[in-house]
Write a structure and sequence with these properties.
By secondary structure, the chain is an alpha/beta fold. It is built from 13 helices and 14 strands.
């Protein structure tokens, strides 16, 4: 329930699943502080955050002026509202400002004059901590409460019952019983033109199957063929929402993933997860969980043998 009549916070979420997962401590702390939260994000955000009762999700409108009007409509409904930008783009800051919303966010991209509270981003460190610094600055700005310097050790995704039910139904329908391992061989985006795709997934899948382990994969829309090629013989659970995907990871003996959304989903529910790095920096995006392990570096991938030490039954 709202406390002390704190202002409504309108939050622009990042555009990527992994980034939203890494922002969960920030969102959870603001929710617990009593700020009514309205978050604007991609269409999948509503399902991912369905277990957070204090957060109202709205799908961000992609066209610039329509998104600006969406913000202006919210300001009319909540005249006391303030903004929080978890994005770094000039466009998102301009949409908020033109919509009449004063926001806190990181400086850069020439957007400082558009912000009510502009922070200089510290170089290095994990993205979770970068988002957490925005939470600390926002609560200080609005006078709600003082936060510790460091983010909590857990991302704290709150699963809804429907997430667990959907995960159990998908596993049962696919005939998956007992222990299983989730493999997530795909990842969007590149670093310096190099894909974030560990090449050892086909061999790891074979080794797991030969050891008697059931291998499960949860392809997103249009990813079924690529998953089948990367993981011959794996059980596919297509069509899951992100909350159900996270619930499947919570049921698994282990999740092995590239530096990608699925890695962060597993970390968000404190499931055992191996994050595989070869071109991105694990210091910035490693799985943020006491049960998360990062293998590899920005200069090279781990070997199959190194991964097998952790993945073997």
């Amino acid at each position: 329930m709202p406390k002390r009549n704190l202002p409504t916070l309108i939050v622009r979420l990042p555009n990527w699943v992994g980034d939203v997962c890494m922002a969960l401590p920030t969102l959870g702390e603001l929710e617990d502080a009593g700020h009514p939260l309205i978050v604007l994000g991609k269409g999948w955000a509503a399902d991912l955050l369905a277990g957070h009762s204090g957060i109202r999700c709205a799908k961000i409108i992609p066209k610039f002026w329509s998104a600006r009007n969406q913000v202006a409509d919210l300001v009319r409904q909540y005249p006391d509202a303030r903004g929080l930008l978890l994005t770094n783009s000039l466009g998102s800051a301009l949409q908020f400002r033109l919509g009449g919303l004063i926001a806190c966010g990181y400086a850069g991209e020439g957007r400082s004059p558009l912000l009510g509270r502009a922070m200089v981003r510290t170089q290095g460190g994990h993205e979770v901590q970068a988002f957490w610094r925005l939470a600390r600055e926002t609560t200080h700005w609005l006078g709600s409460r003082s936060l510790p310097e460091h983010a909590p050790a857990h991302l704290g995704l709150r699963l809804a019952e429907i997430h667990r039910l959907n995960a159990d139904h998908a596993l049962t329908q696919a005939g998956v019983r007992g222990d299983f391992v989730v493999l997530a061989p795909l990842a969007t985006g590149t670093i310096a033109g190099k894909p974030k795709l560990w090449p050892g997934f086909p061999l790891l899948c074979r080794l797991l199957k030969e050891s008697g382990s059931t291998v499960v994969a949860c392809p997103g829309p249009g990813e079924e063929v690529a998953c089948t090629q990367a993981l011959p013989g794996a059980v596919l659970l297509p069509g899951l929402g992100l909350g159900a995907y996270a619930a499947v990871c919570a049921r698994a003996r282990l999740t092995v993933a590239n530096d990608s959304g699925p890695m962060h989903l597993a970390a968000a529910v404190d499931a055992p997860v191996l994050g595989l790095f070869g071109v991105s920096d694990p210091g910035r995006t490693r799985p943020w969980s006491p049960r998360g392990i990062a293998l590899g570096t920005a200069q090279g991938w781990p070997t199959v043998d190194e991964v097998w030490k952790y993945a073997a039954p």
